[in-house]
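Continuing the batch. This is chain 6 of the set; chains 1 through 5 are on the previous pages. Same settings as before, nothing changed between runs. Recording input and output for traceability.
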Amino acid sequence: MTPDQGTLILNYVGLPSLHAEHPVTRSVIAGIPADKVEYRPDSIARTAIDLAWHIVTAENRFLEAVLSGAFDLTPRPRPDTVRSAADVNAWYEERFA
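Output for chain 6:
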């Protein structure tokens, strides 16, 4: 793939897709009931809030890797201040802008 082809794909496929999916992801996370953030269907499963955190940090990590040309695999635990779906979405929105 040439640089021109890469730019074309990025501008006409990648970025529009990313911008279309972002509000969908935010709405799914916003749908987590406040009283169910610690819900897990099984003892070995992640909680709802941890799954939401995983989704937004994985996307953010991928975008940072695209920009820097290298993956940073340092663990990104959920901060103590991120306790609700709204907190996850605020973090996600701040980094997406």
